[in-house]
Write a structure and sequence with these properties.
The complex is a heterodimer. By secondary structure, chain A is an all-alpha fold. Chain A contains seven helices and no strands. The chains are: A mainly alpha, B alpha/beta.
């Protein structure tokens, strides 16, 4: 197993830290207040930047801000964690929306619109992480 | 034997329609989901139903969720019951420090006086107390509405329980007053050392009209359907211990099913037959069991009136609805609850509107995500369960005038008893074959 003593080391470490940044982006500790407001897509991606990405850990020149965590993804994540539509793990988001619709739960139409366009993640928030 | 062509008896016919689509899992794709999905679908389906029944039951009491409970305030909550059982075997018992609490001889029934009922919905759980709730009647997985009050200790003191009750039933059709019979048999156990091949051959001969005089044959000509409810073969257990099989043992494995196919082909040549898989048949383990494959029955599958069906199986014959299983659901209820007889378990599943409430807790089940196929939507006219100890039957009535014939089909390999039902008036009698000479 190759190891590197510096943060800006070889390929493996870079890939490892890149993954860490993504999970850092979804911690709710400082985004709670934001999630209650109506979505403000331009700001949500920059929220976690200070806590999860201290300058010492930036292994390449640009800040990895955009990922897949923008305003639309935030809307879909709120749909994922909403208890009223049932558990989200093990189903694709569109299947879960269809289930909620056929059970008469009136899930939000803009979630359906975002999912059918197809550019965003089709699997839920926790998929592949638990 | 002369064949007199003018006196050929014609067998009666019925219009058959299978309603097994919800039990087939060919279209399902497993995505790594857990059982929380099927529990959610079940809770939501039944909660919507129970909410619609609440205004007729207790219109003045407010409804809330588990998290919304307030102390000393009466309310109604709807949720899934969970029964915490002291004697229920758990994999963690192996690691527990007090080994003496679990007996070495496993009891068949795990009910104990200290069993505790808990009500759960998406927001939380609450412990249930009260004399109204007899824990030995209920099992994990039923959805009910409870009228109760939260006590100081955080428990819920139950005053009244509402079950979903029998679903709506279509009226029994008046079909010109003709007697048409359906024969139910289960537990044929072809290939087992205790089953008698002569008994099964007698049954086949009776159904196909090769037994008896003209009067007998005219009775047999009124049989329109045969239903075989599970456990039709019994593979010798000694062969299935994980060792590689010699070629002569391999042929021993397939002999029971070949023998069954020969006999079934005789029946299928003359009367429609439905065969359901059971716990010991070569089908998948978890419910809903998928139909036994056509290639197992090369002789019988040539007839299009031979149908291999799922377990549970539901069908309509001349607009009379039938629903039944090969016994796994009722046997599981027997392990985790108590009743006076098996028919009482059958009645309870109908009143709870769920074929197998203990699935997936203690009964293997496919992890559906968007539906619960065991939910009983329309009340059947005939509700049967196979592979039971003895023949029992009862007619039960529902609150809206529903009438259901409950049938426990005994194991044919042990008892030699089949059940015959008259679809005109839902009357039932036993057909017993003895092969002992003298007594």
């Amino acid at each position: 197993m190759e190891s590197s003593s510096t943060a800006a080391g070889g390929g493996n470490m870079k890939g490892y830290f890149r993954q860490r940044k993504k999970t850092g982006g979804i911690t709710k500790s400082n985004s709670n207040s934001k999630s209650k407001k109506s979505s403000s897509p331009d700001h949500s991606a920059t929220l976690a930047s200070d806590i999860a990405k201290p300058p010492s850990l930036i292994s390449h020149a640009s800040l990895d801000l955009q990922d897949d965590y923008d305003g639309n993804e935030e809307v879909l994540r709120q749909f994922d964690v909403n208890m009223a539509y049932g558990p989200c793990l093990g189903m694709s988001r569109l299947d879960r929306w269809d289930r909620a619709n056929s059970l008469g739960l009136n899930p939000p139409k803009d979630v359906e619109r975002l999912l059918r366009v197809g550019k965003l993640r089709s699997e839920c928030l926790w998929d592949g992480r638990v | 034997m002369e064949v007199d062509s003018e006196n050929n008896l014609q067998r009666k016919q019925s219009f058959y329609q299978s309603t097994d689509e919800s039990f087939e899992i060919q279209k399902e794709m497993y995505r790594g989901q857990q059982y929380s999905q099927i529990y959610f679908a079940r809770l939501h389906l039944m909660r919507t139903l129970l909410y619609s029944l609440l205004p007729h039951w207790k219109p003045h009491v407010p409804v809330c969720t588990v998290l919304g409970l307030e102390e000393s305030k009466e309310c109604i909550i709807v949720g899934t019951l969970y029964k915490h059982m002291k004697l229920k075997p758990s994999i963690l018992d192996e690691y527990s420090k007090e080994r003496s609490s679990t007996p070495l001889v496993k009891p068949h029934n795990f009910v104990h006086a200290d069993d505790q009922l808990v009500l759960e919905d998406e927001s939380g759980r609450v412990k249930l107390r009260g004399a109204m709730l007899i824990s030995s009647v209920y099992v994990t997985g039923i959805v009910v509405a409870l009228h109760a009050k939260e006590t100081v200790g955080g428990d819920f003191m139950v005053e009244d329980v509402l079950e979903a009750g029998l679903p709506h039933q279509e009226e029994l059709p008046r079909n010109s007053g003709e007697d048409k019979y359906v024969v139910f048999v289960s537990g044929l156990s072809v290939g087992s050392s205790s089953s008698d091949p002569l008994q099964f051959q007698l049954l086949v001969d009776h159904i196909t009209g090769h037994l008896g005089d003209e009067k007998e044959q005219s009775v047999a000509a009124q049989i329109v359907q045969v239903v075989i409810a599970g456990n039709s073969v019994e593979v010798p257990r000694g062969l299935l211990n994980g060792q590689n099989l010699a070629s002569k043992d391999q042929s021993r494995l397939s002999e029971p099913i070949k023998e069954l196919d020969i006999l079934l082909a005789q029946i299928a040549a003359s009367v429609p037959v439905d065969i359901m898989p059971g716990p010991k048949d070569p089908a998948n383990f978890s419910l809903p069991q998928q139909p036994l494959h056509r290639c197992l029955f090369p002789g019988s599958a040539a007839y299009n009136i031979f149908r291999s069906c799922t377990n549970p199986h539901s069908f309509e014959l001349d607009d009379v609805r039938f629903l039944g299983t090969s016994g796994q659901n009722i046997d599981d209820l027997e392990k985790y609850s108590e009743a006076n007889d098996k028919l009482e378990f059958l009645e309870r599943t109908l009143r709870w509107r769920h074929l197998a409430p203990t699935a997936p807790n203690t009964l293997g089940c496919y992890p559906f995500t968007d539906k619960d196929p065991f939910f009983i939507e329309i009340c059947p006219h005939v509700y049967f369960v196979g592979n039971q100890d003895k023949y029992e039957t009862r007619l039960i009535k529902g609150s809206e005038g529903q009438l259901v014939r409950l049938i426990c089909i005994p194991r044919f390999g042990e008892t030699g008893v089949a059940v015959v039902l008259n679809t005109r008036n839902l009357e039932c009698h036993a057909l017993s074959f003895g092969t002992q000479f003298g007594t």
